[in-house]
Amino acid sequence: METLDVTTRTETPDAASNDRAIGSALRDLRETQSLSARQLSEQSGVSAAMISRIESGQVSPSISTMTSLSGALDVPLVSLFRDIATERTDFTYVPHGEGVVSTRMMGEHEHHFINLAAHRRRDLNFEAHKVTIKQQDGEPPSYIGHGVVFIHVIDGSGVYVYGKQKLTLKEGDTLSIDAELMHGFTQVLTPEITFLSVQAEARR
After folding, report:
1. Domain ranges within the chain, ordered by starting residue
2. Model pTM?
3. 77 vs 201: CA distance, rounded Å
4. What is residue 14's predicted lDDT score, i.e. its pLDDT?
5. Are 177 and 199 contacting, i.e. CB atoms less than 8 angstroms apart?
6. What is the pLDDT of residues 126-178, one digit of tens each?
7. CA distances from 87 to 12, 51, 76, 139 (A)
8. DSSP letter string over 74-119?
């Protein structure tokens, strides 16, 4: 027998709006996976009647109920809160040719990069940089991190190492990698190489 897992509360406009937003997100996620309420019920252990009430915004589901549903849908729990308005959102606009210029020095090597975007959310870190590396005596640094890195070469060419892989990247090439292996440009083949580097990782 299913235990009724619903938060009891006095109805307020904000709470009712949040319930409808959670219900709408749940319905969209379920329909995107072409699941009926009964199928989702079988996979999650939450009754089809309860799923219907959640989707119509009639109840406030508990965290345990939403965890069961998000697990059955194989999506993060936060996906059910995606339509809930927040008082704090950030955006970054950098006009062409502008941005904060920084220099990174490591031993005999140095290179310049422009910070194009940086977002710190409770669930995600996101950064985007325009990097320029010139031919020089010092070897460019390699990195190990978390999340995913995307590289797009804007101008020039160079040798990029990812684990045991060596890739020659030139203008217009793109590369996306898991950041857990050693990676980075180890050799610049033209007088300089300029590329876009984007990294996203879950906050720990």
Report:
1. 13-81, 100-202
2. 0.59
3. 17
4. 67
5. no
6. 999 999 999 987 778 888 888 999 999 999 999 999 999 999 999 999 999 99
7. 18, 28, 22, 45
8. TS-GGGGGTTS--S--------TT-SEEEEEEETTEEEEEEEEEEE
CATH (residue range 100-202): 2.60.120.10
Q: Which two tokens stand for residue 197?
A: 């580097």
φ and ψ at residue 152, rounded to 5 degrees: -130, 120
Which fold is adopted by the domain 13-81?
A: 434 Repressor (Amino-terminal Domain) (1.10.260)
Q: Which residues contact 141 (CB under 8 A, 6 or more apart)?
A: 104, 106, 109, 184
Q: Is 138 helix (H, G, I), strand (E, B) or coil?
A: coil
How many residues would you count in the chain? 204
Q: 179-198, pLDDT tens digit by residue?
A: 999 999 999 999 999 999 99
C-alpha 175, offset from chain centre: 17
